[in-house]
Design goal:
There is one protein chain. The protein has 203 residues and is an alpha+beta fold. 20% of the residues lie in helices and 43% in strands. It has two helices and 15 strands. The radius of gyration is 30 Å and the shape is elongated.
């Protein structure tokens, strides 16, 4: 009895068609269905890895000033806190970090950043802007301020342990024409310190 060869040819045709489809998917950058789980896992890891290597940043706005805080250069339990104080309106300045806590004859408040909890300061707060002294009506001594606009400050810190840490901010902004905003004192920003470094939890 003679057997038909059509089924065998059909199987070969289907196999060839499947190979062509697979080649087309690969050429278009698609992955076979069996590899979708591995591809999804790889894609899920990539954003996490990028976030872990990037700087931790948070910001808040209070009493006319936006403060942007960043953790950078973290290595071997040490790093730098960088805070940029930006008055919301033009013509406003911030006061020197060396201003006394109660100002000069009650005028002004120092630009301040301090840490508590699991973080300890490794030095003094430094500002990138030059200090200039101005005269305020009714005040006998000159008042040290920064030029109008943003001021960037840095504070070297170290982690003594894992756990909660708090950054405390103080500042006031003033304009020679429009007066001063209400001073801010001990405004907290919270972090969680782990073996991978500090991460902001709330502001």
């Amino acid at each position: 009895m003679t057997l038909s060869t059509h089924p065998r040819h059909s199987r070969k045709a289907r196999a060839a068609a499947a190979l062509l489809c697979l080649a087309a998917l690969s050429a278009c950058g698609e992955q076979p269905a069996g590899d979708s789980g591995a591809s999804a896992a790889t894609a899920a890891k990539a954003p996490g890895a990028a976030a872990a290597s990037g700087p931790a940043t948070t910001r808040f706005t209070e009493n006319g000033v936006t403060v942007t805080l960043t953790v950078s250069d973290w290595k071997a339990s040490k790093g730098t806190l960088t805070a940029v104080f930006t008055p919301e309106e033009k013509g406003f300045h911030l006061y020197s970090t060396d201003l006394p806590a109660t100002g000069v004859e009650g005028v002004g408040r120092p630009t301040a950043m301090a840490v508590t909890g699991a973080l300890t300061a490794e030095g003094r707060l430094a500002a990138s802007a030059p200090v200039q002294k101005i005269r305020v009506p009714g005040v006998g001594a000159p008042v040290p301020v920064y030029p109008d606009g943003p001021v960037t400050t840095t504070l070297p810190v170290r982690a003594d342990r894992n756990g909660e840490a708090t950054v405390l901010f103080g500042y006031a902004s003033c304009s020679s024409q429009e007066g001063c905003t209400i001073p801010v004192s001990d405004r907290p920003v919270h972090l969680q310190v782990t073996g991978e470094g500090p991460a902001f939890t709330s502001s």
